[in-house]
Amino acid sequence: MANFLEIAGRETLKQFDYMGRLSIQLCATLRQMRRALPLLGNRHRWNATIHQILDIGVDALPMVALLAMCSGFILAMQGASELRRFGAMHYVVDLVAVGFTRELGPLLTAIAVSGRSGSAFAAEIGTMKVTEEIDALRVMAFEPLEFVVAPKFLAALVAVPCLSTVANFFGILAGGLFMFFSTRLGIILYLRYVLSSIVLRDVLAGLVKSLAFATIIAQVGCLEGFRVHGGPEAVGRSTTSAVVRSTFLVIVADAVFTTIFYFIGRP
Amino acid sequence: MAIISVRDLLVEYDGRRVLDGLDFDIEPGQITVLLGGSGSGKSTLLRHILGLERPKSGNISIRGTDITSCSAAELNKVRRSIGVAFQSGALFNSLSLADNVALTLREHTTLAPSIIDLIVWMKLAVVGLGDFGKLHPQELSGGMKKRAAVARALALDPEILVLDEPSAGLDPIVAAELDELILFLKETFQITALVVTHELSSAFRIADRIAMLFNGKLLAIGTKDEIRQHKHPRVVQFLNRLPDSPVHAPAMAAYLDSYLHKREVQA
């Protein structure tokens, strides 16, 4: 029992230590962010940010769209199979529209970006550490957080909400296709029902979540890269760790935000 | 006046003393070679001179600035006067050789792009890579990478050039070419160089002064002749390439006998 408590205590302290490091890195990156902004900052950082936006956002578009369509179709089918029994098929529209805007769109996007870009951040920075490129940056009087992390973070803050919006669109579209084939509900009418079922607060809640998820993915990916010590096998471990930790933290953050919005939204 | 002064430098990792009260000066316009076996503390000393780590106590002054206690802005100012070529080259793989060399010029100066271009190709020509500027680091041989790292280190016309194991892993001809390049740079640009190596032939070819480290302590410092005539047993052992503990074949045989005997008893 004592041994179990000792292990649990040690692991808890480790997690606190990790969260502390993450917070310190986030604050330090926010201080460097000005240099990555357009017009105000350094044009080389802004160019790097554009490159990252294309990488995180545009390149991930087909995957996120397909993922959202499959999920939208599944959600509509599962919802319909139960709601049909109560003669409440029209609620499938609400389920898909609200479910995607508030929840599934941002969450699916975050999981896709975490697997695709979070791991890439960890691998890139980890490799730069192993090959002394991070040290080279420092001795060349560059701040690694400004040079490497700030463009990635800013790009994630732009790209992830955009991708979430795209995921919402394709998820809801898939729901519409299901409704058309199962109940002959016209797409225009379906979209009209969708617009009447979601409110601005749902969209804003989804966007706030997307921004939080983008922060988690970018910061965890970069921190895992900076934590690399040793050789190439450590880089491999860091990429796995980046995906596992960021996915876990995204789901925890999602639970926290959903709880907050649930209580804020209660009449 | 010394361009680099190290005073009472003490470095510890987890209570283990790695550098023990180092005290020496590096004079301007000279090539100082830091000699020592594996684990003697050469790389640790170098990391402290470059301000990549902070010592437990003592100080390091570069051009009159104590880098162990100065601000980040002052440290970056000092770093701009130092060119560093890392052991692995630490070239940025995503950039071409020309872009690697141009990086600091673009970011730290207000020179016109055409002037930067001219400087970049001049620096590449100095190290004999005038025809390879468009290639990426992964397309180069080991020797070419080291020379490219020297070209990048020279980009801002530094007062101090630091070379970490420039001839490690190179064949004797390429290593000799690098030695000649270092001598050429000293004669042409009056540069102060600090070269870390454990290659005796290279050290005695290029050095004006040699400092020898052993177990984190400075055993000897002086001209080539002073080091050759040094009486310290470790210096003599190092210069004469005498092994520390010869392999004891009888001890190995005895160990094998006792191992086999144990196995027989167990059987």
Care to describe what's here?
The complex is a heterodimer of chains A (about 270) and B (about 270). Chain A has helices at about 1-30, 45-60, 60-85, 90-130, 135-140, 145-185, 185-195, 200-225, 230-265. Chain A is mainly α. Chain A has one domain (about 1-265). The longest helix of chain A is centred in the middle third of the chain and has 40 residues, at about 90-130. Chain B folds into 2 domains: about 5-80 and about 160-265, P-loop containing nucleotide triphosphate hydrolases (Rossmann fold), CATH 3.40.50; about 95-155, no CATH class. Chain B has helices at about 40-50, 70-80, 95-110, 115-125, 140-155, 170-190, 200-205, 225-230, 235-240, 250-265, and strands spanning about 5-15, 15-25, 30-35, 55-60, 65, 80-85, 160-165, 190-195, 210-215, 215-220. In chain B, helix 3 (about 95-110) crosses helix 4 (about 115-125) and helix 3 (about 95-110) runs parallel beside helix 5. Chain B is globular. Chain B starts with a strand and ends with a helix.
Secondary structure topology:
The complex is a heterodimer of chains A (about 270) and B (about 270).
Chain A: H1 2-32, H2 43-58, H3 61-83, H4 91-130, H5 133-139, H6 144-183, H7 187-197, H8 200-226, H9 232-265
Chain B: E1 4-13, E2 16-26, E3 31-36, H1 42-49, E4 57-62, E5 65-66, H2 72-79, E6 82-85, H3 97-108, H4 113-126, H5 142-153, E7 160-164, H6 172-189, E8 192-197, H7 200-206, E9 209-214, E10 217-222, H8 224-228, H9 233-239, H10 249-266
Parallel strand pairs in B: 3-8, 3-9, 6-7, 7-8
Antiparallel strand pairs in B: 1-2, 1-4, 4-5, 9-10
